[in-house]
Design brief:
alpha+beta, FAD/NAD(P)-binding domain, Elongation Factor Tu (Ef-tu), domain 3, eight-stranded mixed sheet, binds flavin-adenine dinucleotide
Length: 451
Amino acid sequence: MAGRKTTQKGARTSRARERELLEQRAAAVTMPRSADVCVIGGGAAGLACAVTAAEAGASVVVLECSLECGRTILATGNGRCNFCNTSLAPGNYNHPEFVAASMGEPGEALERVLGFWESCGLVWAEEDGRLYPRSRQAASVRNVLLARAERVGVTLAAGREATGAARHGGGWRVRLAQTWDGQERAIDAAALVIASGGATSALAGALGLPLVPESPVLCAVGASAPVPGLLERLSGRRAHCVAALTRGGRVVMREAGEVLFREYGLSGIVSFNLSRHAAPGDAIELDLAPEVDAWEVDHLVASHPGDAHALDGILDPAIASELITLAGGAQAGGVAWRVAPLVKGLPFRVTGLADEAHAQVTRGGISVAALDARTLAVRDEPGLFACGEALDVDAACGGFNLAWAWSSGMTCGASAARNAASVRVPHFSDTPAGTKNDAPVRTAAPERTLS
Ligand SMILES: Cc1cc2nc3c(=O)[nH]c(=O)nc-3n(C[C@H](O)[C@H](O)[C@H](O)COP(=O)(O)OP(=O)(O)OC[C@H]3O[C@@H](n4cnc5c(N)ncnc54)[C@H](O)[C@@H]3O)c2cc1C
């Protein structure tokens, strides 16, 4: 017991030390008063955007509210980062036409994303079309990206939260929340990129952008079982299956892969993908042995009369035992013809989404109708761009969401740099003498702030 307490205390101390180090590192970064391009959000899309803009010749500042840029990348793919997919194509996304216009033809889109990573020095490996860093460490992806950003002179301003922005001269003035010294600051930029990820509504709404309501997707599905207690008993068990989501008797989607039973419903990659389409009242049927015909199941059980383990050879024995019990028990007459439909279509009823706090993606955000897909420029707002999950674009598991972050980030970076080259930013050097670098600033233009 004492040993456990010491370990917990040790972990707390090392977390506190790490935080202190990150704070020191973030505080050491001097914020310029102005830049060609200001990117709000130092996640996947923001960093791809910043690198591309800087390589096109723009001075770039990334504002990241957490203490480290690229932190969101570390959690992806269970720490392995499934950063792209060989089947990258617009049809994988909720707005295929918009994504097609932005990403280009499938082969071209994949080549562009992989070209970006090749230039970062990343070596990858494929697993059923999913692409991972060869090291299977998300840190590899994050580190090579940050190194490239630093090499091309991007200012990575971590621990700086954007709280609002206003038009200023030909560009934008972005206001920041108080930092370590308790002072508020601002930065001027010719082009402003919103790359603040999911749950971006407050920032985008304050800028007056049209929004689609946000909701979590790629999370577990809440479900009720055909008999009470079944999910509780199976909780923690996994099965390879084909899941069919049906509404009013019509199949909405089928998905093959692993399901994880939970007391509240169904989790695992299959359920994550179903969550993009499921609504309360829908039915989910799990074919728990897709490679085995119903008559084979029938035959197996019928040829082992009274054997409670008759299905152990094709299913997880715990699941097999539950199904035989559900069919009336091994001794019951007609168990064979009752159990086969359960193996081939164990029914559940969707009650809603579950474990939403751990959803991988937020649907909704900035409406794609507000943007020019080719440049990702906000229509009628010169110098304003948006990319990544901040937009109402989402896809199934498999590396497609990160692929969108990289692709849209690169597009935004190129467009923002082009825009900045054509606009003269009213640099702080233009403001009255005595205003020092990295000093607090007052904005003159009407400010659009977060509520
Ligand atoms: C657990 C988990 C696992 C995942 N695994 C995968 C996977 O394997 N493959 C895949 O394709 N997708 C995966 N995803 C989804 C993927 O991570 C996202 O689609 C992707 O990160 C979106 O990139 P983004 O840059 O748009 O947003 P983010 O990566 O979320 O970055 C946004 C950044 O903006 C910052 N920010 C927000 N507001 C402000 C502000 N006002 N001022 C300054 N900074 C701000 C945030 O702190 C954040 O760092 C996973 C998601 C999760 C949660």
